[in-house]
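REQUEST ID: PR-0412
SUBMITTED BY: lab tech R.K.
PRIORITY: routine
TASK: structure prediction, single protein chain
INPUT:
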Amino acid sequence: MLEANPYLTPAQVKQILHETSEHNTARGIKYILTPNNGYGWGVVHAPGAMSRAKDMRPPELDIPVSIESGQVLALEVVGSYSRTPYTELGENGENRLGEDEVEIEASIPSDWERPSRVTYTMEGDIIATVVPEPISESDGAWRLHATFRIINDVQSLTFANPTIRFTTSAPTLSDPETYALTTRETINNMVGEEGRIRVSVGGNVQPEIEVTSPDGGAAVADTFFVIRWTDDDPDDNARISLYNDMDTDPDNGKVLIVSNLAEDPEGDGDSYVWDTSTLVEGRSFYVMAVIEDGTNDAASSYSTGTVTISHTGGNAPPSVEVLEPDGEGDTADETFTIEFLAYDPDDTASVSLYWDTDAVGFDGNPIARDLEEGDGFGSYTWDTSGMEDGTVAYIYAVVSDGQNPQARAYGSGPVTIDHSQGPKIVDYGPIGDDIALDRPVRVTFDSEMDRPSVEAAISTSPGHAGTFSWAGTIVEYSPGGGWDPDTTYTVTVASSAKDTSGSPLGTDKVWAFRTVEATAPPDPPRVTITSPSEDETVSGFYWIEGTGTDLGQGGRVEVRIDGGDWRTADGTGTWRIAWDTELELDGDHTVSARGLDASERAGAVVTVNVTVDNTPNAPPEIEPVNDRTVNVGDPVTFHVKATDPDDDGLVYTDDSELFEIDPSTGRITFTPAE
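STATUS: complete
OUTPUT:
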């Protein structure tokens, strides 16, 4: 039971408990005056509360940590959302009529291409109205933001994923550079933690490290101290060294504590137990961490605070931390491996493990008792075969040395018992808007299926006739004649679908998509032939030329002679193609041209009739010019006569310095001189 508690903090914890508990009116004047603390009496739905708390984690952005310069990327920002039947009260206790507002945001460096082809969808069993904001640019980043307004009621704990999809491309660089991309989720004005992903473009990412403990508080150590840090080097197996230093100048006085520690692959943090038993009483030390990947310059970090050595004597208490389950979708059928860290500097303590139906009270059921603490990592394989299917179990550990108070700790998330042996859907589609009219429904299962039962279980609303096809565990449903345009289709895969052993799917899978709007078909391609012209006589090597319209990107022009093969011309708007007429017989021929668009739709064929004449040409014949006697100073005129066997037109020329000849008549006139 949860009683009204004016000391319950922080505000986000209050709100999460508010949204996942049964509500009764709190009585008392103090609750009327302070409604934000008046939670009344109610039973908290623990799985719902834990799920809603997980919703505050940063949305996932699936992007490679190292990409090529100028690489085009199709990215998804996937948030998390959960809802219980009790999600109905607002931050100040007012009735919100069951509405939740989920905001998903992402930032992409403005050096990258402006995001395009952006879609916003709520995927899963939740209905939401999406209110996207225009893409904006501020503080050196493109910012995407959308609000998902959820108003439908649910009967049990229900999950969904608010999702933003978009396309962008990395900048074109001459030298490698590292960029940061961020995501954040906000639920009902509760702002979640910012997620930050470092991506290298055109080269290797430099590692990062930050010492988180000691953190600036009054840290004191006797025989040991647990140093903690976070590190990040996604594309290398980096190594870490730790030092103690009495100041923050790395060039003097630092002393090596340990070297060659492995960088943890998840980047979620790491720790090391530092033996401080031989250090001088009363001295204070900073901790310095150095990370090296062998490719880039080393990165380093100093702690924000110091550790003061105090050898006061006495027995130090033990400590314990549960590592697994960690709240990252842990499930168990027959067994589950529990992992923990336990320390006791001066005793061999014992560790006991328990499971609980919630994460409060340390009042659960025993799993294992009196495991030996080994000053560090420990694990235990829990037999879960007898646990009830669907149980959500929170694991906690208790460590005791027999001298100090026990240390206890819950894991950061539950493990769900799942004994179901039925098949599961691992992928499905399409989803989103502007789906092509010929795109099939596609469902992927995790095992071989009984195909008739699957085909009988798949339906669409509105209904649409179609055909099924299979490839292993993948089934596709292709719409006969295409989907209707501008229509929302709801697809259901009913729980009656069975695998080849007869096990049913168990639960219905339902999703929706919307098809593209109807558009008028584009104009067919058109071409003209500008050369040769109708009835022209051609010979030798000849360029056929013309123009084209409505061919679009990927279109082409084709030309053929008579009924021969089509050949592709160079160009589309203006085009041409070479024709060696000497390969043709002399006589009449037809030149044809047509245009085709990218979908192979051909336009009308245009033709030109020509005559090919490649007969050899005979030279002209000149009649002899008789000798004449002339007087100096008297003008002289005579004519040169010539004929051409091919009846070609004649042009007269000369190479004499005494006279010039008329090019059209052959007439020569000149006056002789001394």
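NOTES: Residues 1-11, 24-41, 89-97 have pLDDT under 50 and may be disordered.
REVIEWED BY: pending
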